[in-house]
């Protein structure tokens, strides 16, 4: 490893880190051919499967970016974390935890079966579709735009700009996602939904279609890593308790059916989406002093070629490599 | 909170901490009446439901103990962590991860259904019974005593003494645990078992019946918190990678069907057993300086009155309280 | 039993039979209090739980009717048999059997779980909702009224008049049946539906809402008992093969989760609906000569108080009694 | 079809029928190559996959036999019908129906999942393994030989000789059937078993290993077709109610996961075993006078090459052909 570096957490080491990350991105880009671009929403298929990019932002603001860093993509399932945070902020944590459980499900993210089989009192967790749609139904507001407003406001506070809806993706989701409508009607029948189903699904499809970049994801990850506080001002953007719960859910349920393996091999809270994005939050660690980003960092990854569990295949391998090299695990 | 304490991690603060913990144990002891002693093994029913005790051992050796600290109890499911660690040490991590997955299951710990329903290639994780019995079949040795030997040796290295088998509990388990035999034969048919079923079950029942105290659990937790190293000598007792995986599994699957809630509300790797024991590993944290045990600690809890998910009901609440007060969460 | 009757199958014995049936209806009417009127569609709750009526029509035309014989009610699930028959007539038997299986499911009639769990290639059978909705999607016609036309025509041919839609029930079903919409979207996603979902569900809800009387059901049952032929003219109304398959499905899957028990205790092909109707088809039997209706008969029952499996509670007990008295079992 | 035959049910027509059946067996023997001999018990693999034989015995005693008629084979799952009948005779029908349900399960015959998933109060039916093992536990007698005695006695009464145990098959089953032991221990834990598990499994494996021929099966089928009465003496061998229930179960659950399709395409109560045997009971029918065996008949088939559902592949097709030609359907 790189030697003679007194303190990794300063800007002066950035170029050293940059070299490593460039190498690793170049190496793992070859792995994109092991995956395939998502096909369940037609418009997602237009992504370039060879793309791979990463952005790492430390508490000090030090940023290492490499690969395809400028490509916008939609949040997809990553939005589930944001909407759950916003719902907790709007409605209170205990209100939300009474309506959505926080247990890993062991079933596919789009399963209806586990709801029926277990005769559950509430969806298993807010990161499976049944839970996320329930969350979207609890967001206050009569229209989907009203419900999305606090999501946009939170993102604007974190990102410094107001992200936009990718209308084409939204319309593609809205028109093609029959399984989510099936889940929605099931939830409606069981009484889990708190508001009109159409508005709820519109909200859900829109939140999935918000467009971001890996820098945006890295900033979101950094705020979560920093327990919800702005890294510069120390201001609370997300209440600490809510930021913590979000990280727990990301660790236990964030990577679909591979969440346990991701926790085992990478060991950091992260959430992926079928667009190929991954957001990760690395909390401050007490580790060997020669490691970078010990004050915590946020990571954004984009790599639309997905593995069989629906996560960016090269993105996961890249994260695993970096996490092992720099000892990012929270365990 | 307690003020004017420059450094919580010294012996001189121990009496301050002791006061708090005594208060909390007294308070949560009343909660034991919300639970019930395990009934599935007859001999476990003899435990006193009012018992509650805790032992916390820091990296420096500072120890805070309170309540019923001297009562011996059997490891039960806590042994699943130990046997998985030992199997990884004996067989190698990749060998083991090819035979047992590391995903939360969303099903009851003693479920056979999920094996059949998902036509799994391997049990979901080593902390459900199907996974633990598979692990017991992989431990080297022709007899159960041979297989248990490295478990005893590891425990002896951590505890400083060789714990003993509670023969009465063992015989009670062996003779009454029909569900585990059902699981065993199912695993035998699917080809998951690597050795004779009777020896495997004997091994499994024996490892569950090893007798410990809360101090023992706290020591085990401390070694895990310290990434497998002896806190005094720095010697590697458990390889770091294996200690980390053990902590991941404890966090994601350690508290039966309440693992997600425990991670959310407490946020530390822990494993419970139906005897009422809980072992927890608190890794070093970067937190406010006024907090104790920032170098990490191990915790042992005993409280045989169980909640409906099979975890010590007062024990969980006590842990939650302490973790929140002292900011133990790894997130 | 009644004695001295040379030939039960003549009109002259009708008054003897009438006496018996009147007694039995009076007796089993008391059993209505063991059940409850269906609540899942609001308008069905308006039915009088004390109602009980039966109509038995023999091949010769001999009719025995008793109890509440004039009350109109909607077909509900009984329509599944009719629409399957019509779809087979319109599309061919092998076409249909490629799209819907004929296996009992062991799950609730409105289960989605079994579709997901078994990753089925087609719904288990046309008498569960998933199968029936699939059948409704296969009926030819661009609008629901076009699709219903051959159903009305078949019913008109059997009943001698064109039954009517109960608009209030239809609208109630359409607006309240969220589970069926969930099933519909699930089927849409899996590619089982052959046509527009809204038209399909409209068709399904309308077919369920066709209003009949017990005499109508008895006539339908008689035509099925007579292998699809008009009892007077011998004309083929339903092809024999299709009539036979309908009877098989009624026997194996016709009474929801109690189909096996109904086959065991009663032993005749029958289909119930949540409105409280039951249609039964008693094929000609070779039995002791002193039994009535050995040439076969059709039976219509109405009793809106349902047991816990969704079948008319008094209706089933009445049918069981009659079937045992008159040896109606096909086994 | 054959013409000019006044009465099919006489010996004089036997040679006409023989010609047909010989042709059909020759034709369907080619279909044996579409299947495979059972492999789950090693000794069953020794069967010759090309074998195919059928025996049809009418009420009058008229017998038509063709193909490989002399090969002995073991009852396997066919024994489930016999043991259920015997248990009903020994314990009473209502006692048995309180302990085993009579509903088709929709799951594989050797499923444990459905027991756990549905938290059933009793196994779904006596023809799945869980139900059959429960039945074996209810048979009176402290040893397996005591329990088998009434089974042997019933068979002796029907067959005219006492069949023998195939010890090699029995030992092979006993030593290799891990799934059945898994089921057994599951049943033991849930409290469904009424007696010692080892004796129960021994009984079950032995009943499966009783050796018969197709003539034997045809005789068993004939007695069931005749409502339990000896065709010559009219003596009751099996009470009528029990014979009827057996036929219901055979029709609804007798052909594993293909029971519904068999009922649809063939329409007669039948039970298959993995050894390749099928017993069928054709009750008396009111059908066109030119059909043979209208007084009912019993059929035994042997064809060890199995289809993917575990039934004799050529045997089922042969039965379907004959049933359609001679209109055997009970519907």
UniProtKB/TrEMBL annotation, chains A, B, C, D:
It catalyses: L-glutamine + H2O = L-glutamate + NH4(+). InterPro entries: Beta-lactam/transpept-like, Glutaminase. Pfam families: Glutaminase (PF04960). It is an enzyme of class 3 (hydrolase). Substrate binds at residues 77, 129, 173, 180, 204, 256, 274. The keyword Repeat does not apply. Its EC number is 3.5.1.2. The keyword Acetylation applies. GO terms for molecular function: glutaminase activity. Keywords: Acetylation, Hydrolase. Belongs to the glutaminase family. NCBIfam families: Gln_ase, PRK12357.1. Homotetramer. This is Glutaminase. The gene is glsA.
């Amino acid at each position: 490893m790189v030697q003679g570096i007194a303190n990794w957490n300063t800007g002066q080491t950035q170029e050293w880190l940059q070299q490593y990350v460039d190498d690793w991105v170049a190496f793992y880009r070859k792995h994109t051919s092991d995956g395939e671009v998502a096909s369940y929403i037609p418009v997602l298929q237009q992504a370039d499967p060879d793309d791979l990019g990463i952005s790492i932002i430390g508490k000090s603001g030090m940023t290492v970016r490499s690969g395809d860093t400028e490509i916008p993509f939609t949040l997809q399932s990553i939005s589930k974390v944001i909407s759950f945070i916003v719902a907790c902020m709007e409605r209170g944590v205990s209100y939300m935890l009474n309506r959505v459980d926080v247990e890993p499900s062991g079933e596919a993210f789009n399963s209806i079966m586990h709801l029926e089989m277990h005769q559950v009192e509430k969806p298993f967790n807010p990161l499976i579709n049944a839970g996320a749609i329930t969350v979207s139904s609890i967001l206050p507001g009569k229209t989907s735009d009203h419900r999305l407003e606090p999501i946009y406001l939170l993102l604007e506070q974190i990102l410094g700009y107001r992200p936009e809806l990718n209308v084409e993706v939204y319309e593609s989701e809205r028109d093609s996602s029959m399984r989510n409508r099936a889940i929605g009607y099931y939830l409606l029948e069981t009484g889990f939904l708190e508001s009109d189903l159409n508005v709820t699904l519109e909200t859900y499809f829109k939140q999935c279609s918000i467009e971001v970049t890996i820098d945006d994801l890295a900033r979101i990850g950094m705020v979560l890593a920093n327990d919800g506080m702005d890294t510069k001002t120390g201001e609370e953007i997300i209440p600490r308790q809510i930021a913590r719960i979000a990280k727990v859910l990301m660790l236990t349920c964030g990577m679909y059916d591979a969440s346990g393996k991701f926790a085992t091999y990478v060991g950091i809270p992260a959430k992926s989406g079928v667009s190929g994005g991954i957001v990760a939050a690395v909390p401050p660690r007490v580790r060997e002093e020669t490691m970078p980003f010990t004050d915590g960092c946020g990571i954004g990854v984009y790599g639309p070629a997905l593995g069989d569990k629906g996560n960016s295949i090269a993105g996961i391998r890249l994260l695993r490599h970096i996490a092992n090299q720099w000892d990012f695990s929270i365990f």
